[in-house]
Amino acid sequence: MEQLVIDGGHALSGTVKISGAKNAALPMLASTLLAQGTFRLQNVPNLKDVSTFIKLLEELDFSFKKEDNGDLLVDSSGLSCHEAPYELVRKMRASVLVLGPLVARLGKAKVALPGGCAIGARPIDFHLKGLELMGAKLKLQKGYVEAKARRLSGARIFFDIPSVTATENLMMAACLAKGTTVIENAAKEPEVTDLGRMLKAMGAKIRGLGTETITIEGVKELSPAQWKIIPDRIETGTYLMAVGAAGGKLRIENTVPSHMEAVMQKLRDAGLTIDIREPDTIMVKRRKNLRSVDVRTQPYPGFPTDLQAQMMVLMAIAGKLSVITEIIFENRFMHVAELRRLGADIKIEGRSAIVRGVSSLTGAPVMATDLRASACLVLAALAAKGTTTVGGLHHLDRGYEKMDIKLAAAGARIRRVALATEEPE
Ligand code: EPZ
Fold this sequence. Notes:
This protein is an alpha/beta fold. The protein has helices at 22-31, 48-59, 86-89, 99-106, 125-133, 164-175, 190-201, 233-246, 261-269, 308-316, 334-341, 371-383, 393-399, 403-408, and strands at residues 2-7, 12-17, 38-42, 63-66, 72-75, 83-84, 108-112, 137-141, 144-148, 156-158, 180-184, 205-207, 213-217, 226-228, 248-253, 272-276, 282-286, 295-296, 321-325, 345-349, 352-356, 365-367, 387-391, 413-418.
């Protein structure tokens, strides 16, 4: 088991390079199921979730080769098996992204149903409903969903909520369906749009990417492609907020400022100075005390739910009172109890957290409960007076590449130490 030991109260100063986006890399790995041959993926982040997804595809007889320059070659020629086992799916819910491509490519799929997770029930009813509308016959038994279809047919699918992975799953399935599929109320996240661009590079016919209506005209076959994964906007936002928490300044490189508009606006309102100097670089500094602002999570292009916990740290040390409302997931305040241990004054009222700023947080041992909560606790530790230990690093390593190393290089007093006992899975 490992934990981070952080001595807070030291301002940041330096440069951080952003890695490829986890939530783009995972659907892109799934999309390699759609065509036979070797794909080249560039800017693949070195994350636990990515290696879990690679393991899952190896179970389906894929082979992989990592080149010296970091490129990942994905050879899908061996594809034979159509089953995604529970022990991998339970570790990473994004495994459900193999469902649509497998049915489209092999005519059948057997995927373990992802359980709930710390942040909510996270059902996959939109994914299943969409496949049924496209003609798949589904059987749910013993914790698995089995889907069969000689060939999927185009359909009109309307999401109650713009679901990111449901949009991705069904967009991939629709690429090989007979006829045209229209997805209404589709997700507009940059990761969805970039997946669509990669599918078009593979020969798919897709219109409306980045809007709420995506139209896919099915084709008979797709071919492998080479694709560079977009930078991680949630990692970018996390480092912007690290400056909010610790003070100082950072130069954040290899990112896409245009993916960050809602976040940058909110952080400027909170008192951070944010400048865009070059197309892929954001300069951020905290010169004065933070101002309390209200936050309401939204689907893209609104304020992302994946940055809600990190923003709460800034509001915990801001001037007055802030209301943070989480409308995407029903249980994404698990970090509040841990922040309270560091001296934060936060009350939960339904879907909102009422955050009253305190003059400072104080270091203490805390335990991460989920991926973005772990990042929030690291930021809180940077802000707190004294030493904080953060446990549950298996959560952090799922979605952040070398976060401790990147922060240490920017002046944070942070180190990863091994502990005797085993990390709970
Ligand atoms: C994706 O999850 C991201 N994961 C999440 O990031 C992110 O928080 C989320 O989108 C929202 O932006 C990946 O892309 C791998 P949704 P996803 O379907 O697709 C409900 C992280 O930290 N819903 O957009 O699972 C659902 O319960 C992770 O990187 C249904 O009801 O989220 C939620 O309330 C956490 N039925 C809402 O829609 C469904 O079939 C939005 O969820 C699907 C979703």
